[in-house]
């Protein structure tokens, strides 16, 4: 399966139009930002574009530095909703925890430059991205093998503290945060996850639909996520490669829906008390003071954060090796062995911090348990998108549930109808894609 090239071209066109407008207005940005600091003169030191945002670093006359970020249309599927959720999370985490988060000085859903939503925040100076320090190489999303146990423990100890800080924040719903007019923050919006963003960006299918309200239980939320995957499979015209692939993916989705109840914990934590998680929580979004001390001075990029089932919060972390578990080659190979070694170090630091805070070891115990009861792998499928049955998370679940192939096979007429529908969709898509490619070639020749 490939991504929908038509959707990607349309989104790239949106981004290019925004980039053009940014270049036209760039000379006005410094003066505009200065208006949020009593008119003190500022200068743009640098600007750069990440996966979702264009950022400008500005320096004022007194050497104070701010960062302004614009979500880029076409890179972000819903810039307004993404930004208002991000600001709410940053303000709450900064106010209610000891996690170092840049201070937000101003934000809005529009500006007089015509560049759309923006956040103005502190720029984190004199720091380095932990992801850059710990990656095997710039082009490799793999944890270096030569990091000392000392360094791992220094970082894991701080992240363990972050987890316990976040654990103290309880929410009544599963959803996204918002700031009301009185500046109070509530989990009263439907969640926007990185999965939803990526499905729409690369398939053209908006799986978020028209839901505006949060979820009241883990079971309700997980079934909704399963519906998102099924909707992408149905509606993306090239979600399958051929008829055999269509049958395999349809069976996989039906089997996943059938086993879903086995991995939902119906305890009180999943019914009435939810926690804040961030889909983009990783080393690359942690800024450390230097490579030796490894003091985390900022945690950035909270845009894909939302309140989630407690079982997701208390699952073994997926960021330990940089490479996400759903992208491992196999579920029980060398990557898993290295993961377990890092996990034991992290959990030992978490247990020490739990003891220091005179807490029980509930969080560390549940993280260990998530590997034995399979929820660790189940959550990978919840986070992931565009997945087929050959992914390591599903292979691990199949090993745990040998009867899985007998579960919930769709009726043959239903399966045949799906395969025929996808065959026709793929034919139309292929013709349209080829026509677009031909037109682009002709346009370049002219």
From TrEMBL:
A Pfam cross-reference name: APH
Residue ranges constituting the Aminoglycoside phosphotransferase domain according to the UniProt record: 65-307
Transmembrane parts of this sequence: none
Family matches, as InterPro entries: AGP_Transferase, Aminoglycoside_PTrfase, Kinase-like_dom_sf
Top-level division of the source organism's lineage: Eukaryota
Protein's name in the database: Aminoglycoside phosphotransferase domain-containing protein
Protein's organism: Trematosphaeria pertusa
High-level lineage: Eukaryota, Fungi, Dikarya, Ascomycota, Pezizomycotina
């Amino acid at each position: 399966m490939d991504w929908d090239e038509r959707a990607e071209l349309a989104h790239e066109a949106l981004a290019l139009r925004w980039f053009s407008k940014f270049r036209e207005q760039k000379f006005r940005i410094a003066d505009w930002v200065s208006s949020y600091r009593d008119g003190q003169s500022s200068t743009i030191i640098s600007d750069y574009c990440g996966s979702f945002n264009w950022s400008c670093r500005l320096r004022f006359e007194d050497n104070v530095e701010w960062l302004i970020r614009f979500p880029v249309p076409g890179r972000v599927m819903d810039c307004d909703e993404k930004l208002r959720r991000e600001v709410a999370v940053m303000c709450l985490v900064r106010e209610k925890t000891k996690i170092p988060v840049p201070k937000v000085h101003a934000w809005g859903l529009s500006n007089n430059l015509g560049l759309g939503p923006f956040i103005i925040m502190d720029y984190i100076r004199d720091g380095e991205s932990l992801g850059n320090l710990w990656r095997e190489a710039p082009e490799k999303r793999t944890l270096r093998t030569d990091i000392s146990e000392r360094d791992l423990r220094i970082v894991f100890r701080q992240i363990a503290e972050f987890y316990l800080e976040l654990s103290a924040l309880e929410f009544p719903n599963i959803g996204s945060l918002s700031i009301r007019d009185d500046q109070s923050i509530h989990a009263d919006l439907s969640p926007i996850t990185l999965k939803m963003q990526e499905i729409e960006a690369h398939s053209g299918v908006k799986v978020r639909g028209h839901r505006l309200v949060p979820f009241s239980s883990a079971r309700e939320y997980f079934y909704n996520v399963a519906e998102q995957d099924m909707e992408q499979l149905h509606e993306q015209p090239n979600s399958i490669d051929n008829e055999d692939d269509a049958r395999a993916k349809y069976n996989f989705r039906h089997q996943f829906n059938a086993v879903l109840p086995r991995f939902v914990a119906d305890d009180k934590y999943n019914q009435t008390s939810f926690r804040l998680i961030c889909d983009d929580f990783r080393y690359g979004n942690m800024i450390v003071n230097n490579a030796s001390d490894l003091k985390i001075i900022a945690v950035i990029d909270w845009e894909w954060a939302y309140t989630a089932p407690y079982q997701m919060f208390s699952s073994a972390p997926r960021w330990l090796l940089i490479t996400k578990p759903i992208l491992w080659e196999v579920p029980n190979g060398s990557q898993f062995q290295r993961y377990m070694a890092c996990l034991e170090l992290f959990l030992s630091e978490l247990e020490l911090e739990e003891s220091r805070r005179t807490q029980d070891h509930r969080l560390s115990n549940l993280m260990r348990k998530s590997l034995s009861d399979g929820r660790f792998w189940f959550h990978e499928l919840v986070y992931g998108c565009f997945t087929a049955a050959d992914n390591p998370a599903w292979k691990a679940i199949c090993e745990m549930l040998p009867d899985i192939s007998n579960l919930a096979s769709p009726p043959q007429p239903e399966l045949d109808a799906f395969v025929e529908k996808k065959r026709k969709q793929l034919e139309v898509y292929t013709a349209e894609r080829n026509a677009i490619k031909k037109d682009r070639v002709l346009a370049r020749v002219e």
